UniProtKB/TrEMBL annotation:
Residues 285-466 form the Histidine kinase domain. Its EC number is 2.7.13.3. SMART domains: HATPase_c (SM00387). It catalyses: ATP + protein L-histidine = ADP + protein N-phospho-L-histidine. PANTHER family: HISTIDINE KINASE, SENSOR HISTIDINE KINASE. One of its GO terms (molecular function) is protein histidine kinase activity. This is histidine kinase. Residues 14-133 form the Cyclic nucleotide-binding domain.
């Protein structure tokens, strides 16, 4: 074991100004230990036993998040870690694993009071170590929280984009196959002999059916019954592909009465050719409509992401309507909302004015509050997310409420503490609500929490003029 002397301690930057007698007190009141690689100084949830000065070896501090190990820092010889004077941390939030055989000098936690009472300069030096550590660790954890949030949003956005993108690909391939049949349909149509007035009548009747498409709300039984009715009608007239045609006609809301009107102007000899040509037009229209709808969904998602991140905007405060930011957050988190079977209720006040905020920062608030609410309701397999906005004189109040099981009484006072989380290991860093509170304070606002076994509500109050 290497010697730990006052001269060696004085060579350490944080302790260089500490009197020798106080350094000797630290040596005399500490435990001197040897730890082998693979041993743990501390694990999540354990009480932080004391102040540790590393004489040799090294230790890695890490957490396990989303099933993955995330390293935060490495403690090297000459560095000080563990519990420090005036620290509010009682329990460890991560693993401290020895990765290289180490010699540690540890001042037991119960001697900290004597340290503070009798060793002013040593206490001052260790407090300085603590403030530096908190600052550096906060930056790391905040960055980690942002990366976790980005990962969640990216996963949800990928799911949201996947459905319309797959639909476009599927419809494009189907449309290509469908268009290969056009030459055959063309020959059939060119062989049709109809009077000019009948051609005009069919045109005047058919194309408005496409433009004025009826969206019928039919049950499966009603739909099948209507398809059978139209199939029988066409089979009586020897129309090929009657079943396929009937399915498309029902989707467009075309009924037997519509077919009867068309039929009066179509010679029976050409019924099959004519109705297959009409069907081809309907199928083409449907696929083009589906492609347009899917493309519009993608465009809306991209627009939502742009507004959510507030790209191409000044990051200062600006008079902003808060509702688009909340709605865009819901759009981006749509996959998680559907996955957890959550009903979303928007009680947005009509008289809520624009307020002076940093939109990108406030979108982080909505994301954290909504994401926490969704996670709270996951255990129920379903739930209701209610977002309410209202004006309260010179303030705007936003309430994000869930009907989950609520927050246990014994931890309610700690939910805004840095690094504290109610989620299981790997699902959160404990920086979400702390970040929310910090952003709201920057906007001169307040946030309150109301919870019970029937659910939890976070109430954000922001001044109109910031």
């Amino acid at each position: 074991m290497l010697p730990v002397t006052t001269a060696w301690l004085s060579s350490l930057d944080p302790l260089s100004e500490v009197p020798a007698d106080q350094l000797q007190w630290l040596i005399d009141n500490s435990e001197h230990r040897l730890l082998a690689a693979g041993e743990f100084v501390v694990k999540p949830g354990e009480v932080i036993a004391g102040t540790h000065v590393f004489r040799q070896g090294r230790m890695v501090l890490y957490s396990v998040q989303e099933g993955l190990r995330r390293d935060f820092s490495t403690v090297l010889p000459g560095e000080i870690t563990g519990y420090l004077p005036y620290s509010r941390a009682h329990f460890a939030s991560m693993y401290g694993e020895i990765t290289e055989d180490a010699q540690i000098m540890s001042l037991p936690r119960e001697r900290i009071r004597d340290l503070i009472t009798h060793n002013f300069e040593l206490t001052q030096a260790l407090v300085h170590v603590m403030t530096n550590r908190v600052r550096d660790f906060s930056v790391l954890m905040q960055q980690n929280e942002k990366m976790l949030a980005l990962g969640k949003l990216s996963a949800g956005l990928a799911h949201e984009l996947n459905n319309p993108a797959a639909a476009i690909l599927r419809d494009a391939m189907t449309l290509r196959q469908h268009l290969k049949l056009v030459p055959d349909r063309f020959k059939e149509v060119m062989s049709i002999h109809m009077e000019p007035e009948d051609v005009d009548a069919v045109s005047d009747l058919f194309f408005p059916m496409i433009a004025e498409r009826k969206h019928q709300q039919l049950t499966l039984t009603q739909r099948m019954k209507e398809e059978e009715r139209l199939t029988d009608w066409m089979e009586e007239r020897n129309v090929d592909n009657a079943t396929d045609i009937a399915e498309t006609l029902v989707e467009f809301g075309i009924c037997q009465e519509d077919l009867d009107r068309l039929d009066r102007h179509i010679p029976r000899t050409f019924s099959s050719s004519m109705f297959n040509w009409l069907h081809a037009n309907l199928v083409t229209e449907k696929m083009v409509e589906d492609i347009a709808e899917s493309s519009n969904r993608i465009a809306n998602l991209v627009s939502s992401v742009k507004v959510f991140t507030h790209m191409d905007r000044d990051q200062g405060k600006t008079m902003t309507d808060i509702h688009p930011g909340i709605r865009n957050t819901l759009v981006i988190m749509g996959f998680k909302i559907r996955k957890f079977k959550i009903e979303v209720i928007e009680n947005f006040g009509a008289d809520v004015p624009q307020i002076s905020i940093m939109p990108g920062e406030m979108n982080q608030v909505w994301t954290n509050l909504i994401d926490n609410a969704l996670d709270a309701m996951e255990v129920n397999g379903k739930g209701t997310l209610t977002i309410t906005t209202r004006r309260d004189r010179a303030y705007v109040e936003v309430t994000v409420a869930d009907n989950g099981p609520g927050i246990p009484r014994e931890i309610q006072s700690r939910i805004f503490d840095p690094f504290f989380t109610t989620k299981e290991m790997g699902k959160g860093t404990g920086m979400g609500l702390e970040t929310v509170q910090k952003i709201i304070r920057q906007h001169h606002g307040t946030i309150k929490m109301h919870t019970s076994p029937e659910g939890t509500a976070f109430v954000v109050c922001l001044p109109v003029q910031g």
